[in-house]
# Entry
Amino acid sequence: RILRRHAEAVGLTSNFTILDTDDQLRLLKQIMTAANVDERRWPARALLGAIERWKDRGLVPDKVPAGETGDFADGRTVALYRDYQERLQTVNAVDFGDLLLHNLTLFAAQPEILASYQRRFRYLLVDEYQDTNVAQYLWLRLLAQQHKNLCCVGDDDQSIYSWRGAEIGNILKFESDFPGALIVRLEENYRSTPEILAAAAGVIAHNRGRLGKTLWTRADGGDKVTVRGLWDAEQEARWAGDEIEALQRKGHALSEIAILVRAGFQTREFEERFIALALPYRVIGGPRFYERQEIRDALAYLRLVRQPSDDLAFERIVNVPRRGIGTATLQLLHATARAEGLPLVEAARRLIAGEKVPKAARNSLAGFIAALDRWRAEVDRVSHTDLVQSVLDESGYTAMWQADRSPDAPGRLENLKELVVAIAEFENLAGFLEHVSLVMDNAADTSGDMVNLMTLHSAKGLEFDTVFLPGWEEGLFPSLRSVEEHGLKGLEEERRLAYVGLTRARHRAFVSFAANRRIHGQWQSAARSRFVDELSPEHVEIVTELGLGMAPSFGSGLAASPAWNGASAGGSPWGAAWNQSHMARAGRQPLLIESARVPLRGQEVPKVGGFSVGDRVFHQKFGYGTIRKVEDNKLDINFEHAGDKKVMDAFVERA
# Structure
């Protein structure tokens, strides 16, 4: 409203248009074309991301620091930003960032306008102050500098949105920015038990420069936070499912139970487990795993490889990523298919052989069909996981998301990696696609009493009786990308995210980590998160699976402590070994798992399982089978219904 009232002062008229993301991208592509910038090499979405970050900091083109131009478009980022702003003014439009940026310009350039609003808004109240960006801070400071009647409510320990432009320094520097401000600490907590609050306090205390607070509650002590080490993500999901079923039998509502994950790809294991248990669930803040855009696209490629007459799959991905196959070509393709009664793939072959389609589109179509034929020829020659990786890479689909600079692109790439992991669990591509069809059939209803699945970021502001926090492993949580890109600031934001997750729980909190994760179909050792070691030991109950007594942690942590080793046998959690283990932090340990470890190169694996060829065993997923071969802790088993499988001995028991 302020901007519309004074639009002329910033070169606009009061009926200006507010552009959405699609309009912004379209305008940027026009500007890049005019500047001879190759959009295939320098994606418009990446340029938009840079512009949005500058606007979040209140920077007009002339104020962007020289060192931030980067190598985008050979260092012409700021020039493109300037062209973009000029073009917006020409078409009488603004984007979301301009709503604040123009107000800053207005107040700085027109003191009399600023003074009128200072008189009008004499008392300012700001909620969630820890989530404000620099531009918002500068605007508030201008408004409050006259009367100084500013009340900000916030929690520096819950600042978790830096990727949206939030600047934690706004709240940390509040007292110095507004000298004489009264600080009121609201320390009574009305949600969590003392045990949960104390455990969370142990984690967040490792962050530097906090404002500091000591939360307390009138509630009874309650259960300690359970920390559980498990073999892998599948076992982690099975354990969570079993715990939830037990809670349900005791009368607990499923809607009061939440699984809070660090990354979206983690939901797959839980979704599949819940479907197997007939546990209703909903994914909050996004679609279910197999309903996500990138997964549907990838599945369309795989369906087409498996069944070339799948016209719906062909339509979905024939021009994804863009291949220059336009609307006219697609219309002609459909017309040919209808006229001759052919699947679209065969109709494409007819068009390639003729002259009805422009040469460029014909060549693109020919390249796509040739790739499809090549993938189909490899179905019986290479493993299905290698085939999937080839399809995603050779089609350009992976590269498309790698070039995308939007905030959700890294998550989409992680989901594609998780898809490969999911496929590796099946004997062949056909079995996997059939499984997906069954999963999708079970994904219709999202109403009623259901378990809640969401990311930690989506959980802020919510609360549940019971919270599961899986995947507390180095590289996953804290996120390797966050730490590598932002250093200590990134690590501390990850720690705040852990604090937010724990404090979503009213009565029960379960933290878990896996000793191994499957990456691109290969088992990799995982170290438990440093955040596990930072939990206040006297408020935590440790439960480890048999054989995980020496699970590694970041910087050795408690891996060598007798308290950790004895926890599963009823020993005291951490105890006196707490100080010893923290003094011993010198570097990562190798994974030491007695009955189910992933062997390191050149390292002998003790045969503690005692299985022999001919033994009859039971596997929770594959059922009954007979061992055909024993190699260290790996077993070749012929299952009665699932056929031949290679599994680790930790996954089976004697029948």
Remarks:
- The chain has five domains: 2-104, 110-177, 225-288+455-583, 291-436, 616-654.
- The CA atoms of residues 426 and 459 lie 33 Å apart.
